[in-house]
Amino acid sequence: xxxxEQFVPPPDTSVxxxxxxxxxxxxxxxxxxGIAVFNRVYLAVTREVDRHIDTGRFPDVRAAVTLDVRFxxxxxxxxxxxxxxxxxxxxxxxxxxxxxxxGVRPLQFALAGINAHIGHDLxxxxxxxxxxxxxxxxxxxxxxxxxxxxxxxxEERIREELMPGPDLLQIADPLTHLLGSWSLERARxxxxxxxxxLWALRRLPDVAGEFTDRLDxxxxxxxxxxxxxxxxWPGRSVVSRF
Length: 242
Prior knowledge:
- By secondary structure, the chain is mostly helical.
């Protein structure tokens, strides 16, 4: 298999730039790879956010673009770190470590990626965007909420697309129980609180660093639980609209 660095262009500061990098990953990875599963989901989310930006559904376009790009850069930086044999953030390590495990289902890969990206990356992206724009987190709350609404709208489609069919319900019961314990709404609420707290700590670098490290570790722990391998069973094809 080709090395990912052959397919990932240098960082860009535009939405189209990050979309291009995600499309390159999609072309480089086999469909069943756990990173490929999440990448398809995130590509769909970013396209939808870009459509909302283009149609004027964000009140502050500059803020929306800045937050969206800073958010995407966190995920792409994790991919690039893993590609270069460096340690990605703890929140992403379970997905990279288990990305080819035959007992982990596609829906688990998708939600573990969303957990890492929302629970950790979005916190730091809000702070990054505030520093770039010279504003406070409260000034980005509308953009934060709108991105969250796009994610919520897509989450149900993701679950429907990647969940096993009714004929596998009995075998899939542990999967249903496991994934039912994670909530995107609760994750979003925790993310906003963490972003505001980290912003408040920005003049205390040691404390802010410790806060970030503990957040990273906690989100990584939740991700590892989401990726608990299930007994092997034939699931749906992961080659879908995501």
